[in-house]
Amino acid sequence: MNRPDTAPEREALADRLAAQGHLRSRAWRAAVEAVPREHFLSTGVFLPDEANGLWRPVLPGSVSPQEWVEIVYSDQSLVTQLDGCLTPDQVIEPVRGFPTSSSTVPATVVGMLEDLDVHDGQNVAEIGTGTGYSTALMCHRLGEDNVTSIEVDAEVAARADDALEKAGFSTWTVTGDGLLGNPRRAPFDRLIATCAVRRIPYTWVRQTRPGGVILATVGPGAWSYGTGLAKLTVREDGTAQGQIIGRSSFMPARAEAAVPLSGDLAARAAYADTERTTALSPAVLEQWMPAFLAQLAAPGAQFVHARSGDGRETTYLFDTHRESFAALSKGGELWTVRQGGPIAIWDAIEAAVTAWQRVGEPDVDAVRLTVTAKAHTYSIGGNPTLRWEHRID
């Protein structure tokens, strides 16, 4: 079946991205207009069937050519894999599953590439090839010999490599753990990650030239939100310094994906060392910046709601590595918080959120970050309560 020429859609996409402030330079506009996104979605996409909690497979040949083009150039992320193995071309009916690979919404892709601040001739590493679309944009902008893309999933990497070849780019695509970088192609002038990490691997710092830039989404905990886009500059002394430049959300790196808590949560929190009341509702942790702060204050904690048979809801925070928990339940105007284990999780989170509220609730771009071989240090202003050092064991 002949497919329509998508040049008008690419131009329209560039116009939208420019109007929204994501696309800001001629060079990246030329890339957006030149690279067909559909080349990187040949095995189809999963669209959400939110009413039933399912994912509906859509293939290029299962809908009209025009409908497929509209899907491809829509302003949304398009899921291309579920549960680390299932692709849309392998199923017919809607299925359940957890997204593990996608073609990220173009606004995020292009905005990050602009923030990377690349220059002609620079050597760039991409952590997380995914479909290969963002790789192709970089190849168009910098030349295929200046781009190294690393993908941990061998099947995802093979599909991306094939799509890149068909699009005319024979770039350096590598199958491996992106958290380890790629020493053979280092040093890099720029390093960009299209997955979320709990901390910037020091390997990335070592493989980036002094003066080079690392751009990655960080979330010190195991949460799927409350993450921030970190932009760091590598220094001559082997450290990296910078700040969180905005809110960002990506799938976690495969090696760092959290295992969902299961079993009887109430039994896990049956024996508390302390019990008190708090005026700070755990609902605040469903807001982006407090969630980010909570992960800074208690980086090992997982956050989950549970409802008992009588309808009462309890919010739990578990740090399974340090065998600690906090359980919060509503009691009148206040919340009752029970804590157990060597780490007082809620005490740490409450102190961080309260201190943040006292300084006017700045957004995530107020957070500064320093990375060394031994620690990550986050801070907001000069407030000692808003400073967290995460040691690398």
Q: What is the gist of this entry?
A:
By secondary structure, this protein is of the alpha+beta class.
Describe the structure.
The protein is 25% helix and 30% strand. The chain has helices at 7-19, 26-34, 65-72, 106-116, 133-142, 154-166, 202-206, 265-268, 288-297, 345-358, and strands at residues 45-49, 54-58, 78-82, 99-103, 124-127, 147-151, 172-175, 188-197, 208-218, 228-234, 240-247, 274-278, 302-307, 313-319, 324-331, 334-340, 367-371, 375-380, 387-391. Strands 7-6-5-8-9-10-11-17-18-19 form a ten-stranded mixed sheet, with helices on both faces. A hairpin with a 6-residue loop joins strand 18 and strand 19. The mean pLDDT is 93.
Label this structure with key terms.
single chain, alpha+beta, ten-stranded mixed sheet, five-stranded antiparallel sheet, 25% helix, globular
**Order of strands, widest sheet:** 7-6-5-8-9-10-11-17-18-19
CATH top level class name of the domain at 259-357: Alpha Beta
CATH topology of the domain at 259-357: Double Stranded RNA Binding Domain
Envelope shape: globular
Strand proportion? 25-35%
Main sheet record: 10 strands, mixed
The chain-level structural class is: alpha+beta
Continuous helix count: 10
- In which range does the helix fraction lie? 10-25%
C-alpha-based Rg, rounded: 22 Å
Topology:
Layout: H1 7-19, H2 26-34, E1 45-49, E2 54-58, H3 65-72, E3 78-82, E4 99-103, H4 106-116, E5 124-127, H5 133-142, E6 147-151, H6 154-166, E7 172-175, E8 188-197, H7 202-206, E9 208-218, E10 228-234, E11 240-247, H8 265-268, E12 274-278, H9 288-297, E13 302-307, E14 313-319, E15 324-331, E16 334-340, H10 345-358, E17 367-371, E18 375-380, E19 387-391
Parallel strand pairs: 5-6, 5-8, 6-7, 8-9
Antiparallel strand pairs: 1-2, 3-4, 9-10, 10-11, 11-17, 12-16, 13-14, 14-15, 15-16, 17-18, 18-19
